[in-house]
Amino acid sequence: PASLLMDYEAGKITLSSNQIRSIIPRFIRECHGVSMRPSGGIYFIDSRFDEACVAKLEQLFKELPGSKLYAPSMYDDKGALDSIEDAIAGTFQKEIDLLVSEIDEGYKKGTLTTKQVENRKADVDKILSELKLHEKNLRSKADALVIRTKKVSEVLNSRIALAEGSIIESGDFANMLRSL
Predict the structure, then answer these.
(1) Residues 24, 60: contact at Cβ < 8 Å?
(2) CB atoms closer than 10 angstroms to residue 79
(3) Can you tell me the distance from the alpha carbon of 172 to that of 145, in angstroms, rounded to the nearest whole number?
(4) At what angle do helices 78-109 and 142-162 cross, to 10 degrees?
(5) What are the helix (H) ranges across the chain?
(6) CA–CA distance, 71 with 33 (Å, rounded to integer)
(7) Model's pTM, two decimal places?
(8) By the 8 A CB rule, do 71 and 31 touch?
(9) Cβ distance 45 to 20 under 8 Å?
(10) How does DSSP classify residue 65?
């Protein structure tokens, strides 16, 4: 029984590799960072957020046995800037696409409530805020992403304004989403 209790106590503070893989990206997002590759592992954090975030991440990695944190400076050349622009734009494009897809799916199933639309509108506002933070790094791709995100916001605002019941039932809504 004593060893069982000790094993239980040790297990309470043991994190699986999946848990660790989910914790690190959350910390990165808090620092307005983005993954430089789809599988993660390499992240970009703008120097405006660098110092405090690196300190947080260093503390996190101290608590994760076998993990290492490297924070090399990015070279200020066209290749690095293009990589950063592509990674950030890809991240936001995926977020917007996923948001639109989830909304469209809820609409098709007939389960999309006004509250869900309002929540998605808050998600869009958050994306717009993050886009503004990354505008310099997005360079030529910033305008197109902001325009598309604002269109999603307009569609959601129109549905919120027209919603009369708890379920949104307008064929125009699906057409508006698909035009994005």
Answers:
(1) yes
(2) 8
(3) 23
(4) 20
(5) 2-12, 17-30, 47-63, 78-109, 114-133, 135-138, 142-162, 171-178
(6) 13
(7) 0.69
(8) no
(9) no
(10) T
Scanning the structure block, which residue is given the tokens 């290749």? 79
Residues in the chain: 180
Q: For each of the chain's 180 residues, which pLDDT tens digit applies?
A: 566 666 656 555 666 677 777 777 887 888 888 888 877 777 887 777 767 787 888 888 787 767 777 777 776 788 888 988 999 999 999 999 999 999 888 888 888 888 888 899 999 999 999 999 899 889 999 999 999 999 999 988 888 777 644 455 556 666 667 777
Residues 6+ apart with CB under 8 A from 153: 121, 124, 125, 128
CA distance 36 to 23: 17
How many whole angstroms separate alpha carbon 145 and alpha carbon 120? Answer: 17
Closest CA to 57 of 18, 95, 30: 30
